[in-house]
Amino acid sequence: MEKTGVSETSKKERRAIRKALVSWFTANQRRLPWRETTDPYHVWVSEVMLQQTQVNTVISYYKRFLDQFPDIFYLAAADAQDVLKCWEGLGYYARARNLHSAARRLVAENQGRIPCEWAAFRKLPGVGDYIASAVLSIAFGKPYPMVDGNVKRVLSRLFAINAPVNRSASYRIFRETARMLLDKTIPGRFNQAVMEVGAIVCKPRRPDCDACPVRRWCRALADDRVAGYPVRIKRTPVPEYRMAIGVVAKGRKLLIVQRPYDGMLGGLWEFPGGVRQSGESAASACARSVGETVGLEVEIESRLTRIRHAYTHFKVVADVFLCRYRGGRVRRNGPIAHQWVLAKGLSRYPLPGSHHKFIPALLENRSI
Ligand code: SF4
What we know:
The chain is an alpha+beta fold.
């Protein structure tokens, strides 16, 4: 194993670092609803939501989700569309689909019990090392280290680790460091303490080193190199796609189509459209892509708006058009399902975040 910095600290120092982190956490942690429980289902839901999403955003979703699906049996019995609707706006919808499938599997095969063993829990849909470590350490007191972006940043500064935090090969270095530092007597509290220091003290920009419980041992601070950590490799800029979206009206109803469950935004509903081809106007791209994806002939009436939306690996600039249905039937081998709905009925369907950027303008439009 590559030397990580933590291996050069003495056992005594590690004990002191653990104690400082946990004492600081006891006195300074934020009051968050999922910290008031060690119920494995609640911990699991919160940690799935917290992956990729800010704490402040998660709070209301977490409460709403548990109101609607208070235990694993409610979740397992729920309709997939209701789960997605409850998750709507939180993004990364595979998280919701996987949580739902895992709940169904546990109810069908394990009397609804959440396993407290690594191998059994880790093989459930959507459960990676992070979720497994979170649930097993916080809910069951098992000695597994949690490693997320906050933890990697703290460890990289504390032990002056040069491995780039955004290189997948570095993961084992950070996990091994976290494992060696872990307080095995209170792993859940310890894991949360490191993450909390990362979230509110050792922040990405301008860390508050004066308030840091581990400043005595921090190598980056001692070397006056805090700004040099964490090390990152440069990523190539994400591509930007120009798209056209068609709000197709037939009478007073609008066409929405459902995306396949196994892909990006799987199971969500959207207006049809597609990527503009080179040299093609946005309006032509809209009519062509609606024809190609759902098989309808439409007439472009007006441009509603232009929206921009960023996903993890690409960005989209989309022109949204109001279109009038002129002919054809929605193709059976196109989207997995379609509906003609009144504009005011759109709120019953889980829609992608990009659509919520133009739906207010759509609802205000008098021609719909
Ligand atoms: Fe981060 Fe500063 Fe604490 Fe070091 S001393 S771990 S850089 S906040």
